């Protein structure tokens, strides 16, 4: 996948358990993330934030000199970086508190490395989508900056809805995105959805991005459930 | 306070009815008694009888028949016949007292007729043109001598009676109010207290007044209830906290185990054999993870400390989201999930706690995966049946025997079993599914799947709004 630009992002890991920090750092390094720093305490994390200016932070909720929620508050005083909470506290209230304070995601321990990497990837792609170069699909390239498809050197503009739907699919590239999530991305919250409209938009997107729209290879239907965007590596 | 008012109304009704009843009964009794009295001795009637039984012979001698004499004897009365012209006594009975005069002027007569002769109450009857006076014994009657009535008074009699009745009713009502308000004052706090007891409120009733002993025992009951509730809650909280604490402390070390196991499993420089072992460690760690999650939630559900936030949700979207999450986490496609929902069913609205319901359905899918380590095809289906929304997860895996099915359906789980006896089920997945479903007012159906595996359906009431 042509997503290497997110691997250049500076990531700060904060947890009071050195073993866990080692492991997470290890996982991220294996995945290709090179710029990592770790901190064990709120104070350490704050000074790294100020000096090193990371692009993304993974925070534990329970820290020896404070908690992750207040750390986030202090970081927010000078920075808007995306944040993911990684915590052993699985209570729903904690979850809402974390997300309510502007965290981008929340993972309850124990977790699988795959899940962590997936979610970090989604957040980074969403938050730094302006940095993204052209996205290569099987028979075209996507340029989200200009909201257009480049197929056979022809520039085809995307409508607003098509753009939203493709964005949602791209953020979860290689994964199934449900019909409901796509409807929400394009039309906002509505319990009854716009499934028929969605199908019409998908057809038009396929006409723009597929070589043969009736035999799609990039935008695949998962029957009854949703769609999947295949991005070329 | 409703009940006090009811009590009050009832009291008043009973009072009014008893007064009316008492009034009627009294009249009946009065009539019965006076009727007898009139029948026995009517002195006016006696005078008439004497007059009839007194005869005058041709030579001018008066004679009283035996019947007349008998009546005189019975009533111990005497009789005189006064001549119309002279005012002299023409005849007298043999028992005439000496003090009775034998000559009467008109004035004497008016007095004698209206009232008494020498304190003997008199009654009269005519005898031709003459007058017969019957003198009754001194203490036998009392005569009303001034019996004149104002005409207006007679004319207004019905009104007067009505006025009397109303006046009396008002007086009775006031007396009743005064007496009952005292009782009400002392009953009211007790009634309020008893009404508040089931809500678990802390109540205190002032221990004085008519019903102070009742108030004392009510206060003691409330105190006892509170302390019992407190102890119970304390114990339940301690238990839930203990479980939450243990599961919390396990999470970080388990993350490290899972993380490194996964890495080793995917490390291509390791021999195939070692990578497989790492895979087993990862899978078993996931089992522990699911177990601690379930243990925590299950204990909370059991002790009602898990808040249930019901919102209007589309069951189809929810189920779709869960299925896709599982598919996305299973890139090897070891457990393909078939979406077997009618394409026309795009929404199925229910009121439910989305997180809890997601947990229940995820548990069913995890169950299918855990019990079929070699992989299996899972089918997910949503359907509307009558006024229920039915979530079904089935698989084509190894399934269960009839005995196992029976045990899953009927044996109590060790988490909720209060005795040590009997075969108890283990594994928390299905228990949580049941607990969550019950908390939503639904039912769980467990069966063999048509493909020979295991099948569970969760039925929840559709939103009627």
Topology:
The complex is a heterodimer of chains A (233) and B (465).
Chain A: E1 11-14, H1 18-31, E2 36-39, H2 42-52, E3 56-59, E4 62-63, E5 66-67, H3 68-76, E6 83-87, H4 92-100, E7 105-108, H5 113-127, E8 135-136, E9 141-143, E10 148-151, E11 154-157, H6 160-171, E12 176-178, H7 179-187, H8 195-209, E13 219-222, E14 226-229
Parallel strand pairs in A: 1-2, 1-3, 3-6, 6-7
Antiparallel strand pairs in A: 4-5, 8-9, 9-10, 10-11, 12-14, 13-14
Helix pairs in contact in A: 2-3, 6-7, 6-8
Chain B: H1 2-40, H2 43-53, E1 54-56, E2 62-64, H3 66-75, E3 78-82, E4 89-92, H4 106-114, E5 116-117, E6 120-127, E7 130-135, H5 151-155, H6 157-196, H7 212-266, H8 272-302, E8 311-314, H9 315-328, E9 337-339, E10 349-352, H10 354-371, E11 378-385, E12 388-395, H11 402-410, H12 429-439, E13 443-448, E14 454-461
Parallel strand pairs in B: 9-11
Antiparallel strand pairs in B: 1-2, 3-4, 3-7, 5-6, 6-7, 8-10, 11-12, 12-14, 13-14
Helix pairs in contact in B: 1-6, 2-3, 6-7, 7-8, 8-12, 9-10, 10-12
How would you describe this structure to a colleague?
The complex is a heterodimer of chains A (233) and B (465). Chain A is of the alpha/beta class and 233 residues long. Chain A has 2 domains: 4-130, Rossmann fold (3-Layer(aba) Sandwich); 134-229, Winged helix-like DNA-binding domain superfamily/Winged helix DNA-binding domain (Arc Repressor Mutant, subunit A). In chain A, 40% of the residues lie in helices and 21% in strands. Chain A has 8 helices and 14 strands. In chain A, the strands form 4 sheets. Chain A has a 5-stranded parallel beta sheet, with helices on both faces. The longest helix of chain A has 15 residues, at 113-127. Chain A is elongated and about 60 Å long. The model of chain A has no long low-confidence stretch (mean pLDDT 86). Chain B is of the alpha+beta class and 465 residues long. Chain B folds into 4 domains: 2-39 and 149-193, no CATH class; 41-135; 213-297, Orthogonal Bundle (Helix Hairpins); 309-461, 2-Layer Sandwich (Heat Shock Protein 90). In chain B, 54% of the residues lie in helices and 15% in strands. Chain B contains 12 helices and 14 strands. Chain B has helices at residues 2-40, 43-53, 66-75, 106-114, 151-155, 157-196, 212-266, 272-302, 315-328, 354-371, 402-410, 429-439; strands spanning 54-56, 62-64, 78-82, 89-92, 116-117, 120-127, 130-135, 311-314, 337-339, 349-352, 378-385, 388-395, 443-448, 454-461. In chain B, strands 4-3-7-6-5 form a 5-stranded antiparallel beta sheet. In chain B, helix 8 runs parallel beside helix 12 (429-439), helix 9 (315-328) packs across helix 10 (354-371) and helix 10 runs antiparallel to helix 12 (429-439). Chain B is rod-shaped. The model of chain B has no long low-confidence stretch (mean pLDDT 85). The A-B interface holds A 17, 19-20, 23-24, 26-27, 30, 88-90, 92, 108-115, 118, 172, 175-181, 191-193, 195, 222-226 and B 247-249, 251-252, 254-260, 262-263, 282, 285-286, 289, 293, 296, 307, 312-314, 317, 320-321, 323-324, 327-329, 339, 341, 343, 346-347, 349, 355.
């Amino acid at each position: 996948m042509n997503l290497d630009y997110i691997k250049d992002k500076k990531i700060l890991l904060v947890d009071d358990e050195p073993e866990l920090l080692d492991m997470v750092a290890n996982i991220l390094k294996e995945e290709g993330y090179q710029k990592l720093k770790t901190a064990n305490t709120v104070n350490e994390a704050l000074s790294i934030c100020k000096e090193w200016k990371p692009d993304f932070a993974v925070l534990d909720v329970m820290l020896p000199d404070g908690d992750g929620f207040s750390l986030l508050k202090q970081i927010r005083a000078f920075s808007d970086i995306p944040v993911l909470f990684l915590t052993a506290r699985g209570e729903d209230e904690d979850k809402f508190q974390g997300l309510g304070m502007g965290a981008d995601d929340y993972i309850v321990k124990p977790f699988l490395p795959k899940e962590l990497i997936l979610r970090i990837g989604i957040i980074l792609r969403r938050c730094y989508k302006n940095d993204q170069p052209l996205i290569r699909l099987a028979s075209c390239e996507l340029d989200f900056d200009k909201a257009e498809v480049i197929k056979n050197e022809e520039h085809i503009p995307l409508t607003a809805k098509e753009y939203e739907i493709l964005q949602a699919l791209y953020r979860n590239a290689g994964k199934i995105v449900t019909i409901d999530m796509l409807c929400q991305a394009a039309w906002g919250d509505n319990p009854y959805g716009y499934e028929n409209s969605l199908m019409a938009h998908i057809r038009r997107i396929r006409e723009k991005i597929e070589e043969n729209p009736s035999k799609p290879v990039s935008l695949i239907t998962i029957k009854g459930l949703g769609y999947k965007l295949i991005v070329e590596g | 306070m409703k009940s006090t008012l009811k009590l009050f109304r009832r009291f008043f009704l009973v009072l009014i009815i008893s007064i009316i009843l008492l009034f009627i009964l009294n009249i009946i009794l009065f009539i019965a008694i006076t009727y007898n009295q009139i029948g026995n001795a009517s002195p006016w009637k006696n005078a008439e009888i004497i007059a009839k039984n007194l005869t005058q012979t041709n030579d001018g001698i008066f004679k009283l028949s035996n019947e007349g004499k008998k009546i005189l004897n019975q009533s111990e009365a005497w009789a005189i016949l006064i001549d119309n012209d002279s005012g002299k006594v023409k005849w007298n009975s043999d028992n005439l007292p000496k003090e009775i005069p034998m000559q009467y002027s008109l004035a004497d007569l008016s007095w004698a007729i209206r009232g008494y002769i020498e304190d003997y109450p008199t009654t009269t009857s005519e005898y031709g043109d003459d007058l017969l006076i019957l003198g009754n014994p001194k203490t036998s009657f009392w005569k009303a001598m001034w019996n004149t009535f104002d005409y207006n008074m007679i004319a207004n009699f019905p009104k007067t009676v009505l006025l009397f009745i109303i006046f009396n009713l008002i007086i009775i009502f006031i007396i009743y109010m005064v007496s009952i308000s005292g009782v009400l004052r002392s009953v009211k706090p007790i009634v309020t207290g008893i009404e508040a007891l089931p809500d678990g409120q802390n109540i205190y009733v002032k221990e004085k007044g008519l019903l102070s002993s009742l108030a004392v025992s009510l206060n003691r009951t409330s105190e006892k209830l509170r302390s019992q509730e407190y102890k119970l809650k304390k114990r339940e909280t301690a238990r839930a906290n203990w479980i939450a604490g243990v599961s919390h402390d396990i999470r970080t070390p388990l993350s490290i185990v899972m993380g490194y196991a996964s890495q080793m499993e995917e490390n291509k420089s390791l021999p195939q054999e070692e990578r497989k072992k790492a895979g087993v460690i990862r899978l078993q760690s996931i089992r522990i993870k699911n177990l601690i999650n379930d243990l925590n939630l299950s204990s909370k559900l059991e002790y009602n400390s898990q808040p249930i936030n019901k919102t209007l949700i589309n069951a189809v979207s929810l189920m779709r989201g869960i299925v896709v999450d599982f598919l996305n986490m299973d890139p090897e496609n070891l457990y393909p999930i078939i979406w077997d929902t009618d394409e026309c069913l795009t929404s199925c609205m229910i009121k439910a706690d989305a997180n809890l319901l997601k947990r229940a359905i995820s548990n069913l899918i995890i169950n299918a995966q855990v019990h079929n380590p070699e992989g299996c095809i899972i089918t997910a289906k949503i359907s509307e049946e009558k006024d229920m929304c039915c979530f079904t997860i089935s698989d084509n895996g190894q399934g269960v025997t009839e005995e196992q099915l029976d045990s899953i359906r009927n044996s109590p789980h060790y988490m909720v079993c209060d005795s040590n006896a009997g075969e108890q089920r283990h594994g928390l997945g299905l228990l949580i599914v049941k607990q969550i479903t019950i908390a939503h007012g639904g039912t769980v159906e467990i069966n063999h799947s048509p493909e020979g595996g295991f099948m569970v359906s969760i039925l929840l009431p559709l939103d009627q709004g």
